[in-house]
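B., you asked whether I could sanity-check this one before it goes into the benchmark set. Here's the sequence:
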Amino acid sequence: MGGDHKAWWDWTPDVWAWSPDQGRYDLKFGAPKAHVAIQLSTEGVGPAEAYDYWRHMAYYDFDADPFEPREPGKPFQATAYGVIAPLGDLYVYRSAPVSGRRTARQIRSDGFDRFSIGLVLTGRRHFIAQGSAALSSRPGDMFVYDAARPSRLSWSAHQGVHLSLPRQVLAAAIGPDHASAAELSKALNHSPLAPFLRNQLRLFARHAAQLDKAARALVFDQTVQLALAVLQQASVNTPPKVDRSAYYVAARRYIDAHLTDPNLSVPEVAGAVGCSRSTLYRAFADQGSEPAGYIREARLDRAARLLQSRDFQGTVGELALRCGFVDINRFRTAFRRRYGMTPAEFRAAKAEH
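And here's what the prediction gave me:
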């Protein structure tokens, strides 16, 4: 563990032999044994050295062009926060404009055979790979980057987030003979699961630095599941064979976002995540649950949280409606079965404490 103005990291040598104070990462160090966190910044680096420092420490799968400031006298500035795991890494970053290329020579020599799935938060990204059409991405667009294919890319001043995975993980999900990065990028944004991955990446960008180790590991693993599921659906060369756990994660996110809708139903959830009802039931059964039961329990959890909140002073009827229950008597019965007391008794008990 260690850090300064330029870099911070939370692991010890027994978890990972490499650390930023040793300089640029080398493949000989391998991956960490557990999920770890890192933060890099040009803060604390002299203006004349900031860009070279960032190129040296942050860019591995493309060669950045020389820095050309858009405003005279304004130095290059960038910062990044990432979770690095045995399986890959997930980064959120903010940077001044940058451009670069990936050449066949680099691909043969550096060994960084990675595949990235990202989201533009602010700014614009322009990308063209050898043998494919150019692709421009704006805020809200997801993109795919294949480090095994020659390409050129440029970013305006931007914020972004991306997940990077080894080639073999991608091949296991969509096969070795997949479409180009540009084609997958276009299909990716039209996948039924795309909104869930997009929201997952945004949530990581917003809250990653506040998560503890266990939460970071959970978020990383869920993001990988969603990303691979979306890539399977987006792939034009292989039929979708989505891991059911990805449907489970996506369905939970959809349900949690629509709990107040009294008409929320299992068919609606299945349609929203892009699978059949039977597949959705199997996905929940794999986790020891079932969709309707999860909806009911999530609504009851919401009711309990509201009853514990000083901001909610409504009646039991209002509480039921705010949690998606139309039948107040059914709500009371379900609440008593779950918590061993009525909503009114629950509120009174919490008030005493």
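One thing to flag: Residues 64 and 100 are 4 Å apart (CA to CA). Otherwise nothing jumped out at me.
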